[in-house]
Amino acid sequence: MRRSALTALVVPLLAAGCAAPAYVSPVEVTRFVGPSPAYLGQGTIELVAGPGEAADSLEYSVYRDAVRRELEMLGYRVVAQNAQQVASVQFEDYVGDEIRRRGPVNVGVGGSTGSYGSGVGVGVGLDLTPRPAERILREISVAIRPAGGGTNLWEGRASMTATVNSDMADDRAAAARIADALFAGFPGNSGETIEVE
User: Fold this and answer.
1) Which of 96, 102, 159, 171 is the most exposed place for a label (fewest CB within 10 A)?
2) pLDDT digits (tens, 9 = 90+) for 26-74
3) Interatomic CA distance for residues 133 and 164, integer angstroms
């Protein structure tokens, strides 16, 4: 087979074999409800950046705003100061590759000699297993406490993983989905971990 014919055969197969499927996990949510749940979901609340957060970063503001929308839907009035409660918001993300396997194309050359002649052969092996796409793990943590201090009234954490080729690779889409899951059925059962599709 001539080189051009081999290339014409291999290139479309590689394109088909290397496309990794998009993946979006369910959102895993864990919540803890304090001893005074009657105070939740009402009055004024101020959003503050959690410890170590870069409150002025664009990425963080996307997740903070998603939390703000959910709190407003619960019945809170979000204010900039002099609030009755404070919601501390933290966001983290991790990006990583799945374990890489060997390349998709293997070329072997073999030769033989003998009393009946000699020959050289070329073999092409194609591994069409889709390559894993890079994944992003995102997590939002929120703690609600009285503005004057004291025990947290509520704490929650929600996380999800999505590949970079999925719809949830976009920060705004991911933030809306995670925040929605975090506050679904608010305040939730204390200590319970659930998965939200």
Assistant:
1) 102
2) 999 999 999 989 999 999 999 999 988 888 899 899 999 999 999 999 9
3) 7
Beta bridge partners of 44: 77
Neighbours of 178 (CB within 10 A): 27
Whole-angstrom CA distances from 7 to 3, 105, 124, 130 are 6, 12, 11, 20
Q: Report helix, strand and coil shares of the chain as percent, to nearest 5.
A: 25, 40, 35
State pLDDT tens for residues 1-18: 444 444 444 444 444 445
Does CATH number 3.30.160 belong to domain 20-97+136-196? yes
H or E stretch at 16: helix 3-18
Amino acid occupying residue 43: G
CA distance 125 to 55: 52
Cβ atoms of 5 and 131 within 8 Å: the answer is no
Interhelix angle 171-183/58-74, nearest 10 degrees = 30
* Cβ 17 vs Cβ 127: under 8 Å: yes
φ, ψ (nearest 5 deg) of residue 113: -135, 155
